[in-house]
Amino acid sequence: MGRGPGIVLAAAGLAALGIAAWVEHGLGEVPCGLCLWERWPWRVLAVLGLLAALMRGQGARAMLWLGIPVMLAACGLSAVHVGVEQGWWPSPLPECRAPVFHAGTFAERLAAMPLRPSKPCDAPTYLVGALPLSMAAMDGLYAACVLAVIAYCLSRGRRPGRR
């Protein structure tokens, strides 16, 4: 198995992280707690892809196999987030709920505020106005596509006569 599949996986992970960073820092969208969790599989995939590109033979193949549960986790996190956005269930993360301010002086209330503004997890972010898919939904679709690429690369390496 050549270096190509590893480079593709690393690029896929870095592309997902790059888009998330662009939306956050370039467009000024504040990520919610689930959005931040959804970035972790892409970080892991980028590392696995780099390792697969550096390794040969069974080591590279093992890194590709490890990419499967990572992308399944990405699909699962996306499904949870989309369910929260659609109101099918509450968010499992406490940081996705609105902060509760208790009585006290104005200074005490200001001191209790988070350093960074938070966004509720049930407020979807839409990047393309005419497309009714939130970023969480697009993340899940992208993860499913990357999962299909991994499966294809692994099945291609199993054909008889290939080494």
UniProtKB/TrEMBL annotation:
GO terms for biological process: protein folding. It comes from the Bacteria. It is a multi-pass membrane protein. Gene3D superfamilies: DsbB-like (1.20.1550.10). Keywords: Membrane, Transmembrane, Transmembrane helix. SUPFAM superfamilies: DsbB-like. One of its GO terms (molecular function) is protein-disulfide reductase activity. Signal peptide: none annotated. It is found in: Membrane. The chain crosses the membrane at residues 40-57, 64-84, 133-154. InterPro entries: DiS_bond_form_DsbB/BdbC (IPR003752), DsbB-like_sf (IPR023380). GO terms for cellular component: membrane. This is Disulfide bond formation protein B. It comes from Gluconacetobacter takamatsuzukensis. The lineage of its organism: Bacteria, Pseudomonadati, Pseudomonadota, Alphaproteobacteria, Acetobacterales.
